[in-house]
Amino acid sequence: MESSTILPSSHLSIFCHKPYGITIGAFPFNFKQPKRTSNFTVTNCQKMHVSGFGEASPETKAAKNLHNFFTYVAVRVITAQLESYNPEAHKELMEFVEKHSLNDGDKFCAALMRESSRHKTLAMRILEVRSAYCKRDFEWDNLERLAKKMADESNTRLMRDYVLETSHVDDEKSDG
Q1: Over the stretch 92-123, which tens digit does the pLDDT of each residue have?
Q2: CB neighbourhood size of 40 (10 A)
Q3: Taking a C-beta distance cutoff of 8 angstroms, is the pair 68, 130 a contact?
Q4: Which CATH code, of 2.10.109.10, 3.40.50.300, 1.10.1200.210, 3.40.640.10, is assigned to 58-137?
Q5: Domain extents for the chain?
Q6: What share of the chain is helix, strand, coil (3-state, %, to 5)?
Q7: pLDDT tens, residue by residue, 20-67
């Protein structure tokens, strides 16, 4: 059973009072805590609570999507390799890919293993490449940097577009 605390509206915020990993002294200006006039205590939080994800956290959902993506990458790597040195296996794999979705990587690999002994060998190779790519070749730091950059740029663009739409600056210039 979940418990909740009722806070006066002056203490409610969607942001944590002390962001995770940042100390107050790290800011170039002085934060002054407002004087509290009630006996309520605001608890510092470390992370945002994200509701609506049921049994899995957003990170778990993202990891599952990446897992499926790594299967897709492994299939692309292997089809490129097969194209140059084993055209027959390349054709078989491409025919299988056309008939089976890659949205669920594990389901795809399981079906591939059960297709034939030749397909089982391809599936084992996909599993091997998927694991190797995830562990050695995927640039995790680059993912974080790009995700943050994309979020910031997208937010800025959306806010700018909204302001331009709602400010009617173009209408005022054309009237003048």
Answers
A1: 999 999 999 999 999 999 999 999 999 999 99
A2: 12
A3: no
A4: 1.10.1200.210
A5: 58-137
A6: 65, 0, 35
A7: 443 334 434 343 444 545 554 555 657 777 776 677 888 889 999 999
